[in-house]
Structure to design on (391 residues):
């Protein structure tokens, strides 16, 4: 056995089984230009208002939705707001923005870069998927009068590339399994890289708990937590009975972050008209002495802390997230995007929450990318990657 083969085997063994995004690139997006941000299992974007924290998370979410096959106008309802403020139009009055990411996994680092035209028409004008220095997919707008881009993907057969048109209103990478036969080594490499990128991007849950929506009773439904966590009580109704161990961990977390004694956290059915039970539930804290405190009486910080703890302790089956159903759950990682991660939290709550996040992210099945105004309080927590943004 040669030294080179030993090195290759060690490198292959070191590759993660679960694809995940390890870098976010904002070449030209909103307030960002030529910016690249490394992302670990737990990453916090830190900076004052206007430094671009929220726009970085917005770009990540946009890539995730595009990776899931969403159309461009759904992902960017106000595309002009994504164009850098000082970007000047070209001779055809075109302006746009560029975003990208790197996903690491069994295939090694795979890069995706996307160029979007925002004016005069919203369309993807360029896309590039690369791995190991090799361009696996490249698209370009050749004829502005057509609603398509010219795509070329790696074949490595009798012809080095295959060319065909792709729509300009959605990402080409998730469409490759419908276009690439997988008959040559080159085609199989393209498919493997595309799958790794799509799996890394798709399982994303963007979360920004809104305390005012969590204070009232809500109807019973599918029991999947929404972005604003307004249906928290409905989810508690489901999860408390489905997984006692995780619910116990949630109660421990709530006990550490809420004022007063906490014996349990539960949802209770509400009486309807003429004393009947209707289809709504409300969340309550069981104080252990016969007193149950409705969540509506809690402070904003307590409610946000509670909701974010639930998100970290649960999984894709409980969150309103579009996972790659054709890939086993053991090979996927859920990424939580939490804008305003520390909003309304006191010192004890934010430190407890980031430590909980670090423990959960260390296991590998969940990652978190958050935005905070200041991350100095998280400096002593192991496993936290802080991305400092300058205004």
């Amino acid at each position: 056995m040669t030294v080179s083969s030993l090195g290759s085997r060690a490198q292959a063994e070191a590759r993660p089984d679960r694809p995940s995004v390890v870098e976010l690139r904002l070449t030209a997006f909103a307030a960002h230009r030529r910016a690249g941000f490394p992302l670990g299992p737990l990453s916090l974007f830190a900076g004052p208002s206007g430094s671009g924290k929220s726009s970085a998370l917005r770009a990540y979410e946009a890539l995730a939705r595009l990776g899931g096959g969403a159309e461009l106008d759904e992902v960017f309802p106000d595309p002009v707001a994504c164009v850098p403020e000082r970007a000047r139009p070209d001779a055809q009055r075109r302006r746009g923005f560029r975003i990208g990411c790197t996903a690491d996994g069994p295939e090694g680092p795979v890069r995706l870069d996307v160029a979007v035209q925002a004016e005069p028409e919203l369309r993807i004008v360029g896309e590039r998927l690369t791995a190991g220095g090799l361009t696996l997919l490249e698209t370009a707008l050749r004829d502005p009068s057509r609603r398509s881009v010219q795509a070329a993907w790696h074949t490595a057969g009798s012809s080095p590339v295959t060319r065909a048109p792709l729509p300009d209103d959605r990402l080409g990478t998730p469409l490759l399994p419908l276009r690439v036969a997988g008959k040559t080594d080159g085609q199989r490499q393209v498919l493997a890289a595309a799958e790794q990128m799509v799996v890394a991007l798709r399982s994303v849950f963007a979360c920004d708990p809104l305390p005012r929506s969590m204070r009232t009773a809500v109807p019973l439904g599918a029991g999947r937590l929404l972005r604003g966590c307004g249906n928290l009580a409905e989810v508690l109704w489901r999860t408390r009975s489905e997984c006692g161990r995780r619910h116990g961990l949630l109660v421990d977390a709530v006990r550490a972050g809420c004022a007063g004694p906490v014996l349990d956290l539960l949802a209770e059915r509400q009486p309807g008209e003429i004393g009947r039970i209707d289809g709504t539930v409300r969340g309550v804290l069981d104080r252990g002495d016969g007193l149950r405190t409705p969540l509506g009486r809690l402070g904003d910080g307590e409610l946000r802390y509670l909701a974010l703890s639930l998100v970290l302790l649960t999984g894709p089956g409980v969150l309103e997230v579009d996972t790659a159903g054709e890939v086993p759950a053991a090979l996927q990682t859920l990424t939580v995007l939490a804008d305003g991660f520390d909003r309304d939290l006191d010192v004890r709550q934010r430190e407890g929450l980031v430590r909980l996040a670090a423990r959960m992210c260390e296991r590998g099945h969940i990652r978190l990318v958050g935005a905070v105004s200041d991350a100095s309080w998280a400096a002593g927590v192991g496993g936290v990657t802080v991305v400092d943004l300058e205004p």
